[in-house]
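RETRY 2/3 - previous attempt timed out on the joint model. Re-submitting the same 1548-residue input unchanged.
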Amino acid sequence: MTQPYIGAAIRRKEDRRFLTGTGQFVDDVKLPHMVYAAVVRSPHPHANILTIDASAAQQMDGVIAVFTYRHIEALVKPRPIPLRNRSYPGIERFLQYPLASHKVRYAGEPVAIVIAETRYLAEDALDGVVVTYDSLPAIVDAWQSMQNDVLLFEEHGTNVAYEFTSSLGDVDQAFRQADYTRKERFHCHRHTANPMETRGLVASYAPGRQELTVWGETKVPHFNRRVLADMLEMPEHRIHFIEPDVGGGFGVRGEFYPENFLIPFAAMQVGRPVKWIEDRREHLTAANHSREQVCELEIAAKRDGTLLGMRANIYGVLGGYARTHGAFIPVSTAALLTGPYRIPNYGWDVKCLLTNKVGMGTYSAPGRYESCFFRERMLDMMAADLGIDPTELRLKNLIPPSAMPYEVGRTRPEDYVITYDSGDYPALLHKALELVGYEQLRSKSGLMQDGKYHGIGTACFVKSTGTGIPYEGARVAVVGPDQVAVYLGVATLGQGHETVMAQICADGLGVPLDDVAVYHGNTDFMPYGGGTSASRVTTLGGNAVYGAAQQVREKILRISARYLDVRPGELEFVQGHVYRTGVQASEPVLTLGQVLELAGPASPHHEGEVGLEATYYFQASQECYPCGAHAVHVAVDPETGKIDILKYVIAEDVGHVINPLLLTGQAIGAAAQGVGATLLEELVYDDDGQLLSGTFVDYLLPTSQEVPDFELAILDLAPSPINPLGVKGAGEIGIVATGAALSNAVSNALGVQVRALPLSPHKVRELAARRNEA
Amino acid sequence: MTQPYIGAAIRRKEDRRFLTGTGQFVDDVKLPHMVYAAVVRSPHPHANILTIDASAAQQMDGVIAVFTYRHIEALVKPRPIPLRNRSYPGIERFLQYPLASHKVRYAGEPVAIVIAETRYLAEDALDGVVVTYDSLPAIVDAWQSMQNDVLLFEEHGTNVAYEFTSSLGDVDQAFRQADYTRKERFHCHRHTANPMETRGLVASYAPGRQELTVWGETKVPHFNRRVLADMLEMPEHRIHFIEPDVGGGFGVRGEFYPENFLIPFAAMQVGRPVKWIEDRREHLTAANHSREQVCELEIAAKRDGTLLGMRANIYGVLGGYARTHGAFIPVSTAALLTGPYRIPNYGWDVKCLLTNKVGMGTYSAPGRYESCFFRERMLDMMAADLGIDPTELRLKNLIPPSAMPYEVGRTRPEDYVITYDSGDYPALLHKALELVGYEQLRSKSGLMQDGKYHGIGTACFVKSTGTGIPYEGARVAVVGPDQVAVYLGVATLGQGHETVMAQICADGLGVPLDDVAVYHGNTDFMPYGGGTSASRVTTLGGNAVYGAAQQVREKILRISARYLDVRPGELEFVQGHVYRTGVQASEPVLTLGQVLELAGPASPHHEGEVGLEATYYFQASQECYPCGAHAVHVAVDPETGKIDILKYVIAEDVGHVINPLLLTGQAIGAAAQGVGATLLEELVYDDDGQLLSGTFVDYLLPTSQEVPDFELAILDLAPSPINPLGVKGAGEIGIVATGAALSNAVSNALGVQVRALPLSPHKVRELAARRNEA
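RETRY 2/3 succeeded.
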């Protein structure tokens, strides 16, 4: 079967509407009689609620309703926002309710919601909801949390929401027998994704048919629909989620937040459509934060650098509640802490700690960015201690391709084992070193040139993808002679699925690419859907499209053969036409339109299988493991703390490539986010639990000035052996090693050891000052 | 398998929203920036268009656009509105285009469309579109049309749009050998359905995704979508039809009319949603007319009343164009003219004649109301001639149940033969006679009492149902532990499908009725759909739901048996629970929710069949034939022409009854329409081709004063043997014999022969006057 489209650098089909300004985002949804919501949020990080008096707000012109926890309670049984996918025993005691009932646990927590005729009136009315609080001391870091002096949930007697301890091999023996050990404490800073478009929802309820339509649900619409149905006590099939175009997700958008209940609930109560668009301040102070972790890491090795063992205490700094991901992020840190290296003995303890900050959720490559930073920093320290070149040390310990598939073991509290499916890790590092010019740069390491210290950093990584729900479905339907529709269960957040899935369908089915249209983002399209996270869409959804397309293709051949009275093997279906096998140069024997007629419900030829349509669920036996290496050359100005990235090389292997053009965009976009996150972004809290960087004045995003011209090498050395397309998922891959590679480079440049991120200018100046001390 | 719901008199689920005023009809669809359409219509019944100058309209405040044929032509290839389902060779030359190009052929024909900010502005601007015409002579009846002096389509040289001649048996010999023959000319009057809600459309185009959504498409949405897709030259899957609640169809609503192209086209062109709601004048002057036919009928019989043969010339008086049904209505008259009687020799000729009137389409029981009137009148005349009681004559000739299935023969220009599936015709007539008290009333026939002549009339009928597309599909999906969704391909026009289909699903699947929700009216729900006409929904769609529900039920048992490691036969599924067969009193072994989990895409138990969902297409081998008899006792005031209906009895057998409550409503509603149509309604044209009864002042609808208390006997003697539910379709059955029974009763009362409908007061006075003459 020819595959003209898979692997081709095809431009994005969806860009036509974005470039012509005809995309439809959630804020473009306008409904008659629509009203607007604003959320009353706690100014206190930790306080008991004494009274809520909404009467002033309710009397304001244009205010339609104010809802508090008491109002909800009077109408439906309030339920907390549940964990998604995974369960972590005990953590469900610390879930968040859509509105605070008697206590607030972070500044920004929703206490009431105001519905008014306009956004302005709704926001003005926030002050009319008078809440009196009894303030309590705030907990802002892991150590305070663990003291349990101040408890966020008094009734549970602890701030440790979840703990998980386990090991592989014999860790103590490894450390006993080691020639070399070192122990360090690393700190990854709190930051979060900032998609260009903030979150937003429009909800409209039709009381006649008792149907609720919600626009703006993205990422995991089927999961969120089930949660909302439970909360509203209505059947799932009466709730329709429609995903408009989306301006970026990166993990933060689309989880079930308080507003995901409050807006539909309000729409049902006030009998008018309700819109809420998150503003940037709300995004920074109420949407999931991520990344904040402390890792006490200990390593054991032979004198020659051979790794023997690793021990880690990982402290995940959750916020006031366990949000949808509960313990997932620090657990993920532990799961892949050994990375692409053979480290046979590994012990770890994960603690999830409540603090009076915003709840923690995922940001691209959750736990993997962090673990890569912890491990790769440690390897560079160890290389220095042992007098080995850090890339030599890596090459010595990287799992060789001959060891694939490589079983790491059960590093998560779940029932399946981590097994790297394929990958040539040394080749990726060699490629990165070659491209960055490692040999030439080595001589410059740590030297000053034009007032800046030059340094080089490398880092290797592997990332699990397709985690979460281990299946995805798709429906492929031939609708007309030159019309094929693909229906996805997954959401799309801007990645280009309409193009990639069309390529996969066109090849799997055997039709011209232009005949294929991809539909997504409507919970009515598919009964099940695992959502868009963990780089799972192409891995699971792509293989589902491929499977469905192939089933339709087989049906086309089966029906044609029956009609022509030949064996199916005597026919082939190419570019929308049925040919006698091997005589494709000749005239087609049937067109797709003719076969569609044969398959029609009134045709005598369908034999019980009506229509040219198939739904296929691809089920993954395990995860995929894309991998790569970063190498970066920086020049650090010790006076200003500014880091110039002179060269940034990424070598990655994400399995078989569907569309190199889109992959390049994904890889570079992710790396750009990682550079920004590493150099600039930080959600800083003061000791009282107030967020100091709640606007873009203080929370700095990278601009074209900070983002380097990445040099990208996409190696297609190791297609995944565990799915038909050989793909591994690509969305988050580029970000994983950015913190690690940059911190190694800066350490190398300044001759100091970076132990904490971010590498913001004032912190780099402090590091540079320590160099002078040394 | 227990069937607690099929056959039960369950109240309509949909009435909750209608009774609480929360139904959503097309005029309730309001979109931001919506604009409004009004149609410029020809005031001339027949004219050449000389010029169209829209400049004055275009300059009016609030007018957004004016479109004429020339504008359409510049953007897409204009295509005529095609025939639906059937083809009649040659008639396609006379199809209508959405706008007139150079000639108008009926008063009311669309010439241009105006789009403006409000409905008022749009209507005001109609006068600003200046059209100059060169008027031509108008043709208003069958005889003028056949002369071909004036031609509607000069280029085709004839006004006979289609002709079909055929026979069964040896007609000439039958007439030669007959003891008795008679020839009559009957005339059925032009009238049409007037649903409470007029037609209406809202169209909205999203240029980004290139998707068009149209609200208000009913009856045959899948067919109409294909037509619209062809006309707009866009893929079908990019067009979404959404059917809101609908205030009645009766055949007239939902066919593809000019506006069904013009409104979506305009929405795409102006870039804003466009609404058009038909007003009553437009409905009467532009929506399909129906019924107008002349029938020259000749009958041959033995002296004892045994029917030997029948000859008919049927003249269908079409309008200026062949609309979607082309020749269907007069062809249907011919097809069932012999009715429930054994008439072995039958010859017929059908002519479809163009006239300068509104195009002809279907109205409930199209052609059957007419043929029943023609035949049953003739039988009463013959009974009088032969001195036989008319009910005796009928009983002598009715096909006995022992002759079932009874092959009538190929009475249509189609490839399948009419075969009555089942029915006890004599029992139905006996039942009607018994209920009306025929024996007692006979003595009163023709006598005056209190200034009114009393008469009794009877009529027997059979009606084909499930014609048209001989399949229908449905999808049944278990969505939650107590949530089952049924998706229909058919539209619903107020009949109660949400209740009936839920009953069928609940029994076919084995769940409580309240757990079932029925979805319909969205072309995205099902890829195919034959629409709602010809009383086909329960016959075809109901059996599709039943089949799909049974498939889901079998799957539930299959998965449960696999999981429990027993044979499927050892389990039964009752009211949402799996039990060991025969021990239903005991605890269920599995709940539906548990089985749903087992079938989930991540479950190891689904074995390739994910979800509890099935799509099933029921294919009919032939049509069904519900049947019945009407008997009516009238008192006619010769002075006023008013007819008092003292008793109206309907005995009908529509096969197995799903819901007697809804069937009663359908039967009585249809009969009420038939009474109104027979006594009051007429679309009267003057000799110049102008409609004189274009408002409800002149076109009279029945009120509670005219509609009698019907006495209804639903006999369930003859379930259809050709589908699993044994149903036959019921919607149109009640109307068939109304014209026949009432005209026989009036003839009987006045001692004259009614040869033409309607029996409006002034016509009854004329008839009464003839009595005095005689």
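The first helix of chain B runs from residue 15 to 19. Closing ticket.
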